[in-house]
Design goal:
The protein is mainly alpha-helical and 154 residues long. It has one domain. Helices cover 52% and strands 6% of the residues. It contains seven helices and four strands; from the N terminus they run αβαβαααβαβα. Helix 2 runs antiparallel to helix 6 (120-134). The longest helix has 27 residues, at 52-78.
Length: 154
């Protein structure tokens, strides 16, 4: 069973676990693979380290893509008469919000040697420490019950 946990690395490994369906167990090996793949996406210069700039660039790019998807869905929802245009009345219902970009929480959590960059090893160690904390029975699998107990899902 393929589990997609792609939003995991914006500073909160809980997001990786929370995105799994409530009935899905997340194995440690799957968690590592997703975390490593996300690290590789953020490491734009492929030097094996994440800098503040790389994290913020990734967050900005990802945030823009998510915003575009939300905008498309929002437009469809606001276009009550489905004519492909928003009337002033339809447009007035448009909510506005701008996501914040801030690498500090991720840097503070994962940059263990405080050198201003996060290596794959630092990233993995920090994320796995969180996984291991939730994996209370230490069987290498985070169950829905463990996620609920940790407050990751409701």
């Amino acid at each position: 069973m393929k589990i997609i946990l792609a939003a995991a690395l914006l500073g909160a490994p809980a997001a990786a676990l929370a995105q799994a369906p409530a009935s899905t167990n997340v194995q440690r090996t799957q968690f590592i693979a997703v975390q490593d793949a996300e690290f590789q996406k953020m490491d734009s210069n492929k030097d094996g380290k994440l800098t503040r700039v790389e994290i913020e660039t990734y967050q900005r790019t990802r945030g823009a893509a998510q915003a575009a998807a939300r905008n498309k869905a929002l437009f469809a929802a606001l276009d009550a008469d489905h004519n492909g245009q928003l009337s002033p009345g339809e447009f007035a219902k448009l909510p506005m919000s701008v996501p914040t970009v801030d690498a500090r929480p991720m840097m503070a959590t994962l940059d263990q040697n405080h050198d201003g960059s996060i290596t794959l090893i630092e990233n993995r160690a920090g994320k796995l420490a969180y996984f291991d904390k939730i994996d209370t029975d230490k069987d290498g699998v985070v169950t829905a019950a463990e996620m609920k107990a940790a407050g990751v899902i409701k």
